[in-house]
Fold this protein.
Amino acid sequence: MPSDLILAASPQQVNVLVVIDTEYVKKNYPNPSKDQNHPTGINHSSQFMICTGSRGIISGQGTADLNFRANVGDTVAFTGVSIYDNADDAVIIYGIQYWKRDNVFNQFVPDLVTRTGAVIPNSDSPNGLPAVQVKTNFSSFDSKVKNAGTEDFYVLFALYTLSDNGENQNLFGYYYWDPTITVA
């Protein structure tokens, strides 16, 4: 059997990258909750989810209404970023919560990875290359799929804005919206 053959029944890692248009969120929801336990609900016009490793996209790749397939035993990991790559406004996904229909996920937990040699552009080079290596933290919210069904869930995120001094990012507020997963 070839070593690169992936068996359909084997658990897979499903990764979902969430990109938030923070300008839209700030303009349309200028007075958000400052309580992470009671985030402000938003419409589906500012979020773009990109999924890889799923058992298939049902609909909505690249939208806020992503509906993807996974199998029981698969791991699903969400990570988020602002449209500015967190350099100006920043986004942190801080929760995935069951909303309605079938409860297909186990509890989501934060997963932090520290890379001692992560690459960033070289500020001493006109094109940023060769890259330099620095210690950097990466985070995601992960869960194993526990049973079949279709679940509507909430994605919760914190939005931080760049301060007037151009150096600090400060909490603007907490938000959420509701995509769907289907487990075969």
Q: What stands out?
A: The radius of gyration is 18 Å. Residues 33 and 39 are 5 Å apart (CA to CA).
